[in-house]
Amino acid sequence: MEPFFRRLFGKESSKDKAKKRLKLALVYDKLEVSDETLSNLQKDIIQVISKYFVINQDSLKLDIRRSEDYSTLVLNTPIVSAKHRGVST
Amino acid sequence: MEGKVIVVTSGKGGVGKTTATASLGSALALEGKKVVVVDMDIGLRNLDVVMGLENRIVFNLIDAVTGKCKLQQAAIKDRKIDNLFLIPASQSDNKSIINASAMERFCKKLRNEFDFVLLDCPAGIEQGFENAIAGAEEAIVICTPEVSSVRDADRVIGILLSRSIVPRLMVNRIVPQLVERGDMLSHEDVVDVLSVDLLGLVPMDELVVISTNMGNHIVMQKDSMAGQAFRRIAMRLNGQADLPIEVPRTQKSFWKKLGIFGKKK
Fold this sequence. Notes:
Largest sheet of chain A: 2 strands, antiparallel
Radius of gyration of chain A: 23 Å
Structural class of chain B: alpha/beta
Strand content of chain B: 15-25%
Largest interface: A-B, 16 and 20 residues
Radius of gyration of chain B: 19 Å
Strand content of chain A: 15-25%
Number of domains of chain A: 2
Number of helices of chain B: 12
Shape of chain A: rod-shaped
Structural class of chain A: alpha+beta
Number of helices of chain A: 3
Distance between the termini of chain B: 60 Å
Shape of chain B: globular
Number of strands of chain A: 4
Helix content of chain B: 40-55%
CATH topology of chain B: Rossmann fold
CATH class of chain B: Alpha Beta
Helix content of chain A: 40-55%
Order of helices and strands of chain B: EHEHHHEEHEHEHEHHEHHH
CATH architecture of chain B: 3-Layer(aba) Sandwich
Oligomer: heterodimer
Order of helices and strands of chain A: HHHEEEE
Protein backbone atom coordinates (compact mmCIF):
# COMPACT_ATOMS: atom_id res chain seq x y z
CA MET A 1 0.00 0.00 0.00
CA GLU A 2 1.18 3.51 -0.69
CA PRO A 3 2.30 5.41 2.42
CA PHE A 4 -0.31 8.09 1.80
CA PHE A 5 -3.23 5.66 1.94
CA ARG A 6 -1.67 3.71 4.75
CA ARG A 7 -1.66 6.84 6.87
CA LEU A 8 -5.19 7.67 5.76
CA PHE A 9 -6.47 4.33 7.05
CA GLY A 10 -4.39 4.62 10.21
CA LYS A 11 -2.42 1.50 9.36
CA GLU A 12 1.02 1.09 10.89
CA SER A 13 3.96 0.79 8.53
CA SER A 14 6.26 -2.20 8.91
CA LYS A 15 9.14 -0.01 10.03
CA ASP A 16 7.04 1.55 12.81
CA LYS A 17 6.24 -1.94 13.99
CA ALA A 18 9.96 -2.82 13.77
CA LYS A 19 10.93 0.21 15.83
CA LYS A 20 8.41 -0.55 18.55
CA ARG A 21 9.50 -4.18 18.82
CA LEU A 22 13.13 -3.15 18.86
CA LYS A 23 12.68 -0.63 21.66
CA LEU A 24 10.87 -3.18 23.78
CA ALA A 25 13.50 -5.86 23.10
CA LEU A 26 16.29 -3.52 24.17
CA VAL A 27 14.49 -2.66 27.41
CA TYR A 28 14.11 -6.36 28.18
CA ASP A 29 17.73 -7.09 27.25
CA LYS A 30 18.93 -4.53 29.75
CA LEU A 31 16.84 -6.01 32.55
CA GLU A 32 18.53 -9.36 32.23
CA VAL A 33 20.71 -10.08 35.23
CA SER A 34 23.27 -12.87 35.35
CA ASP A 35 22.99 -15.59 38.00
CA GLU A 36 26.33 -14.49 39.38
CA THR A 37 25.12 -10.92 39.96
CA LEU A 38 21.98 -12.20 41.57
CA SER A 39 23.84 -14.50 43.97
CA ASN A 40 26.27 -11.69 44.87
CA LEU A 41 23.30 -9.45 45.60
CA GLN A 42 21.79 -12.17 47.75
CA LYS A 43 24.99 -12.46 49.80
CA ASP A 44 25.13 -8.71 50.33
CA ILE A 45 21.49 -8.52 51.32
CA ILE A 46 21.91 -11.37 53.83
CA GLN A 47 24.80 -9.49 55.36
CA VAL A 48 22.79 -6.30 55.78
CA ILE A 49 19.66 -7.99 57.12
CA SER A 50 21.71 -10.09 59.53
CA LYS A 51 22.81 -6.89 61.22
CA TYR A 52 19.26 -6.30 62.36
CA PHE A 53 17.49 -9.67 62.28
CA VAL A 54 18.23 -13.27 62.86
CA ILE A 55 17.19 -15.02 59.65
CA ASN A 56 17.40 -18.48 58.27
CA GLN A 57 19.78 -17.87 55.38
CA ASP A 58 18.72 -20.93 53.39
CA SER A 59 15.09 -19.91 53.26
CA LEU A 60 15.88 -16.48 51.79
CA LYS A 61 14.63 -16.21 48.25
CA LEU A 62 15.59 -13.54 45.75
CA ASP A 63 13.82 -13.31 42.43
CA ILE A 64 13.20 -11.00 39.52
CA ARG A 65 9.62 -11.04 38.32
CA ARG A 66 8.60 -9.56 35.02
CA SER A 67 5.25 -8.21 34.04
CA GLU A 68 4.15 -6.32 30.94
CA ASP A 69 5.20 -2.91 32.19
CA TYR A 70 7.96 -3.37 34.74
CA SER A 71 10.28 -5.76 36.53
CA THR A 72 10.25 -6.27 40.28
CA LEU A 73 12.94 -7.48 42.60
CA VAL A 74 11.26 -9.79 45.10
CA LEU A 75 12.94 -10.70 48.37
CA ASN A 76 11.31 -13.19 50.67
CA THR A 77 12.64 -14.25 54.05
CA PRO A 78 11.09 -15.44 57.28
CA ILE A 79 12.41 -13.61 60.35
CA VAL A 80 13.51 -15.77 63.27
CA SER A 81 13.93 -12.86 65.70
CA ALA A 82 14.99 -9.27 65.87
CA LYS A 83 18.44 -8.45 67.08
CA HIS A 84 18.73 -5.88 69.84
CA ARG A 85 20.99 -2.90 69.81
CA GLY A 86 24.57 -3.62 70.64
CA VAL A 87 24.23 -7.29 69.88
CA SER A 88 25.10 -6.95 66.23
CA THR A 89 28.70 -7.42 65.21
CA MET B 1 53.96 9.55 14.67
CA GLU B 2 50.99 9.25 16.98
CA GLY B 3 48.25 7.55 14.99
CA LYS B 4 44.67 6.70 15.80
CA VAL B 5 43.55 3.14 16.50
CA ILE B 6 39.95 2.58 15.45
CA VAL B 7 38.08 -0.71 15.74
CA VAL B 8 35.33 -1.50 13.22
CA THR B 9 32.74 -3.67 14.90
CA SER B 10 29.07 -4.66 14.80
CA GLY B 11 28.21 -7.62 16.98
CA LYS B 12 26.21 -9.24 14.22
CA GLY B 13 28.00 -10.83 11.30
CA GLY B 14 27.40 -10.06 7.65
CA VAL B 15 26.57 -6.38 7.98
CA GLY B 16 29.61 -5.16 6.06
CA LYS B 17 32.41 -4.76 8.60
CA THR B 18 35.14 -6.08 6.34
CA THR B 19 34.05 -4.07 3.30
CA ALA B 20 33.76 -0.97 5.46
CA THR B 21 37.23 -1.49 6.96
CA ALA B 22 38.78 -1.97 3.52
CA SER B 23 36.91 1.00 2.05
CA LEU B 24 37.58 3.43 4.89
CA GLY B 25 41.21 2.34 4.93
CA SER B 26 41.65 2.94 1.23
CA ALA B 27 39.76 6.24 1.37
CA LEU B 28 41.97 7.49 4.21
CA ALA B 29 45.07 6.45 2.26
CA LEU B 30 43.75 8.36 -0.76
CA GLU B 31 43.49 11.38 1.55
CA GLY B 32 47.24 11.04 1.93
CA LYS B 33 47.40 9.29 5.28
CA LYS B 34 49.53 6.27 6.07
CA VAL B 35 47.03 3.54 6.90
CA VAL B 36 47.12 -0.07 8.04
CA VAL B 37 44.05 -2.29 8.13
CA VAL B 38 44.30 -5.30 10.41
CA ASP B 39 42.22 -8.47 10.08
CA MET B 40 41.37 -9.54 13.62
CA ASP B 41 39.24 -12.51 12.57
CA ILE B 42 41.73 -15.26 13.39
CA GLY B 43 40.90 -18.50 11.57
CA LEU B 44 38.35 -16.86 9.26
CA ARG B 45 40.33 -14.21 7.44
CA ASN B 46 38.65 -12.26 4.66
CA LEU B 47 40.00 -8.74 4.55
CA ASP B 48 42.80 -10.03 2.25
CA VAL B 49 40.41 -11.30 -0.45
CA VAL B 50 38.21 -8.23 -0.24
CA MET B 51 41.31 -6.11 -0.93
CA GLY B 52 42.64 -8.45 -3.61
CA LEU B 53 45.83 -9.20 -1.69
CA GLU B 54 45.19 -12.87 -0.89
CA ASN B 55 48.15 -14.20 -2.86
CA ARG B 56 50.71 -11.90 -1.31
CA ILE B 57 50.49 -13.21 2.23
CA VAL B 58 53.73 -14.42 3.76
CA PHE B 59 53.47 -13.46 7.43
CA ASN B 60 50.36 -12.70 9.46
CA LEU B 61 49.10 -10.94 12.57
CA ILE B 62 50.05 -13.79 14.92
CA ASP B 63 53.61 -13.82 13.54
CA ALA B 64 53.91 -10.07 14.10
CA VAL B 65 52.37 -10.10 17.59
CA THR B 66 54.49 -13.02 18.78
CA GLY B 67 57.64 -11.54 17.28
CA LYS B 68 58.20 -14.25 14.64
CA CYS B 69 58.54 -11.49 12.07
CA LYS B 70 58.99 -7.75 12.00
CA LEU B 71 55.99 -5.45 11.76
CA GLN B 72 57.17 -4.30 8.31
CA GLN B 73 57.25 -7.90 7.08
CA ALA B 74 53.66 -8.63 8.09
CA ALA B 75 52.27 -5.41 6.59
CA ILE B 76 51.46 -6.09 2.93
CA LYS B 77 51.54 -3.08 0.65
CA ASP B 78 48.41 -2.47 -1.41
CA ARG B 79 48.59 -2.97 -5.19
CA LYS B 80 46.93 0.29 -6.18
CA ILE B 81 47.05 2.74 -3.32
CA ASP B 82 50.25 4.08 -1.81
CA ASN B 83 50.42 4.33 1.96
CA LEU B 84 47.88 1.53 2.38
CA PHE B 85 48.91 -1.67 4.16
CA LEU B 86 47.20 -4.87 5.28
CA ILE B 87 48.11 -7.14 8.16
CA PRO B 88 46.22 -10.38 7.47
CA ALA B 89 44.86 -12.75 10.12
CA SER B 90 46.34 -16.21 10.38
CA GLN B 91 44.15 -18.93 8.93
CA SER B 92 45.21 -21.74 11.23
CA ASP B 93 43.34 -22.12 14.46
CA ASN B 94 45.82 -20.77 16.99
CA LYS B 95 43.80 -17.86 18.23
CA SER B 96 44.52 -18.51 21.89
CA ILE B 97 48.12 -17.39 21.26
CA ILE B 98 47.23 -13.72 21.37
CA ASN B 99 45.35 -12.08 24.20
CA ALA B 100 44.07 -8.62 25.01
CA SER B 101 47.25 -7.32 26.63
CA ALA B 102 49.45 -8.57 23.76
CA MET B 103 47.14 -6.77 21.31
CA GLU B 104 47.26 -3.61 23.39
CA ARG B 105 51.06 -3.59 23.16
CA PHE B 106 50.93 -4.35 19.44
CA CYS B 107 48.51 -1.49 18.79
CA LYS B 108 50.92 0.90 20.50
CA LYS B 109 53.62 -0.23 18.09
CA LEU B 110 51.31 0.25 15.10
CA ARG B 111 50.35 3.70 16.29
CA ASN B 112 53.98 4.76 16.05
CA GLU B 113 54.18 3.69 12.41
CA PHE B 114 50.83 4.71 10.95
CA ASP B 115 48.41 7.66 10.97
CA PHE B 116 45.40 5.35 11.08
CA VAL B 117 45.11 1.79 12.33
CA LEU B 118 41.77 0.19 11.42
CA LEU B 119 40.97 -3.09 13.17
CA ASP B 120 38.45 -5.36 11.44
CA CYS B 121 36.73 -7.02 14.39
CA PRO B 122 35.29 -10.55 14.18
CA ALA B 123 31.53 -10.99 14.69
CA GLY B 124 30.31 -11.83 18.17
CA ILE B 125 31.42 -10.60 21.58
CA GLU B 126 33.80 -13.38 22.57
CA GLN B 127 37.59 -13.40 22.96
CA GLY B 128 38.28 -12.26 19.39
CA PHE B 129 36.15 -9.20 20.00
CA GLU B 130 37.91 -8.53 23.32
CA ASN B 131 41.29 -8.75 21.59
CA ALA B 132 40.15 -6.36 18.87
CA ILE B 133 38.87 -3.68 21.22
CA ALA B 134 41.74 -3.96 23.71
CA GLY B 135 44.06 -1.55 21.94
CA ALA B 136 41.45 0.71 20.33
CA GLU B 137 40.64 4.23 21.42
CA GLU B 138 37.71 4.77 19.08
CA ALA B 139 35.13 2.50 17.52
CA ILE B 140 32.99 2.53 14.41
CA VAL B 141 29.86 0.48 15.00
CA ILE B 142 28.27 -0.76 11.79
CA CYS B 143 24.66 -1.76 11.55
CA THR B 144 22.09 -2.27 8.83
CA PRO B 145 18.52 -0.97 9.24
CA GLU B 146 17.23 -4.33 10.48
CA VAL B 147 15.99 -5.24 13.95
CA SER B 148 18.56 -8.00 14.52
CA SER B 149 21.48 -5.84 13.53
CA VAL B 150 20.33 -2.82 15.58
CA ARG B 151 19.80 -4.96 18.65
CA ASP B 152 23.32 -6.41 18.43
CA ALA B 153 24.75 -2.94 17.81
CA ASP B 154 23.11 -1.78 21.04
CA ARG B 155 24.82 -4.58 22.96
CA VAL B 156 28.21 -3.78 21.45
CA ILE B 157 27.81 -0.05 22.12
CA GLY B 158 27.08 -0.87 25.76
CA ILE B 159 30.27 -2.93 26.07
CA LEU B 160 32.38 -0.29 24.30
CA LEU B 161 31.10 2.49 26.56
CA SER B 162 31.89 0.39 29.64
CA ARG B 163 35.52 0.24 28.39
CA SER B 164 35.62 4.00 27.75
CA ILE B 165 35.84 3.57 23.97
CA VAL B 166 33.81 6.17 22.11
CA PRO B 167 31.52 4.50 19.55
CA ARG B 168 30.21 6.20 16.45
CA LEU B 169 27.56 4.71 14.21
CA MET B 170 27.64 3.91 10.51
CA VAL B 171 24.36 2.72 9.03
CA ASN B 172 25.07 0.46 6.06
CA ARG B 173 22.97 -0.89 3.18
CA ILE B 174 20.22 1.69 3.31
CA VAL B 175 17.61 1.18 0.59
CA PRO B 176 16.03 4.63 0.09
CA GLN B 177 12.99 3.24 -1.75
CA LEU B 178 12.10 1.05 1.23
CA VAL B 179 12.74 3.84 3.73
CA GLU B 180 10.50 6.24 1.83
CA ARG B 181 7.77 3.60 1.65
CA GLY B 182 7.94 3.06 5.41
CA ASP B 183 9.21 -0.49 5.06
CA MET B 184 12.73 0.05 6.35
CA LEU B 185 13.97 1.76 9.50
CA SER B 186 15.32 5.19 8.63
CA HIS B 187 18.68 6.31 9.98
CA GLU B 188 16.77 8.65 12.31
CA ASP B 189 14.93 5.65 13.75
CA VAL B 190 18.19 3.77 14.27
CA VAL B 191 19.91 6.74 15.92
CA ASP B 192 16.82 7.31 18.07
CA VAL B 193 16.88 3.71 19.31
CA LEU B 194 20.64 3.53 19.87
CA SER B 195 21.25 7.13 21.01
CA VAL B 196 24.79 7.30 19.67
CA ASP B 197 26.68 9.77 17.48
CA LEU B 198 26.23 9.23 13.75
CA LEU B 199 29.35 9.00 11.61
CA GLY B 200 27.85 8.27 8.23
CA LEU B 201 25.25 6.61 6.02
CA VAL B 202 25.98 4.17 3.21
CA PRO B 203 23.36 3.13 0.66
CA MET B 204 22.90 -0.39 -0.69
CA ASP B 205 24.97 -0.53 -3.87
CA GLU B 206 25.41 -3.46 -6.23
CA LEU B 207 28.74 -2.04 -7.37
CA VAL B 208 30.10 -3.16 -3.98
CA VAL B 209 29.37 -6.77 -4.93
CA ILE B 210 31.10 -6.32 -8.27
CA SER B 211 34.21 -4.63 -6.94
CA THR B 212 34.49 -7.22 -4.16
CA ASN B 213 34.32 -9.94 -6.82
CA MET B 214 37.23 -8.28 -8.57
CA GLY B 215 39.20 -7.42 -5.45
CA ASN B 216 39.03 -3.74 -6.34
CA HIS B 217 38.55 -0.68 -4.15
CA ILE B 218 34.97 0.59 -4.22
CA VAL B 219 36.14 4.07 -3.17
CA MET B 220 38.04 4.43 -6.45
CA GLN B 221 34.82 4.14 -8.42
CA LYS B 222 33.39 7.59 -8.99
CA ASP B 223 29.97 6.25 -10.01
CA SER B 224 29.49 4.20 -6.85
CA MET B 225 27.13 5.76 -4.31
CA ALA B 226 28.52 3.55 -1.54
CA GLY B 227 32.11 4.33 -2.54
CA GLN B 228 31.46 8.06 -2.40
CA ALA B 229 29.71 7.66 0.96
CA PHE B 230 32.79 5.86 2.33
CA ARG B 231 35.02 8.67 1.08
CA ARG B 232 32.95 11.23 2.93
CA ILE B 233 33.10 9.18 6.11
CA ALA B 234 36.88 8.96 5.73
CA MET B 235 37.07 12.75 5.35
CA ARG B 236 35.03 13.09 8.51
CA LEU B 237 37.41 10.74 10.32
CA ASN B 238 40.33 12.71 8.96
CA GLY B 239 39.57 15.94 10.75
CA GLN B 240 36.71 17.35 8.68
CA ALA B 241 34.24 16.67 11.47
CA ASP B 242 31.64 19.16 10.28
CA LEU B 243 31.32 17.78 6.76
CA PRO B 244 27.53 17.26 6.52
CA ILE B 245 26.20 13.70 6.49
CA GLU B 246 24.51 12.92 3.20
CA VAL B 247 21.25 10.97 3.40
CA PRO B 248 20.80 8.37 0.64
CA ARG B 249 17.73 9.23 -1.43
CA THR B 250 15.93 7.73 -4.37
CA GLN B 251 16.88 9.24 -7.68
CA LYS B 252 13.47 10.26 -8.88
CA SER B 253 12.76 12.01 -12.11
CA PHE B 254 11.09 15.40 -12.00
CA TRP B 255 7.70 13.99 -13.04
CA LYS B 256 7.72 11.26 -10.45
CA LYS B 257 8.61 13.86 -7.84
CA LEU B 258 5.44 15.75 -8.65
CA GLY B 259 3.65 13.32 -6.45
CA ILE B 260 0.80 10.98 -6.01
CA PHE B 261 -0.96 11.71 -9.29
CA GLY B 262 1.33 9.75 -11.50
CA LYS B 263 1.60 6.75 -9.20
CA LYS B 264 0.10 3.42 -10.13
CA LYS B 265 -1.48 0.88 -7.82
